[in-house]
Amino acid sequence: MHLTAPATARPGTRTRDADGMAVASFVLGLLGLLVFNIFLGPTAIVLAAVSLWRGTKRRGRAFLGMGLGVADLLVLLAFMQVDNTLSWSF
After folding, report:
1. Is the CB of residue 31 less than 8 Å from the CB of residue 68?
2. Residue 60 CB burial class (10 angstroms; 0-12, 13-18, ≥19)
């Protein structure tokens, strides 16, 4: 009697997860340009790197997510230089 499911994964699950991570990195990077860029920028970079490492079919989205994550951090640094604070406001 087995109480748990077998440990084998369905074929294509890893690629589908990587595709989801690529899209998530793009969305979080885009959202991070507006709010919470100190958290969403690094998260977008990590998700993009992991999705590329897992072999996503959406490489363009992953690279865009990584670029937007870096842009989030650059925007944060620019506003920190202007305001002399860790956060920024309008």
Report:
1. no
2. exposed
Say yes or no to pLDDT of 1 above 70. Answer: no
Give 11-22 as a DSSP string.
TTHHHHHHHHHH
Tokens 């072999």, located at residue: 55
Mean pLDDT over each residue of the chain, to the nearest integer: 83
What single-letter DSSP state applies at residue 10? P
**Among residues 69, 62, 20, which one has the least CA distance to residue 40?**
69
Structure tokens at 16: 């589908």
| Residue ranges per structural domain of the chain | 14-56, 58-89
Average pLDDT over residues 54-69: 91
Tell me how far apart the alpha carbons of residues 30 and 10 are, in angstroms, rounded to a whole number.
31
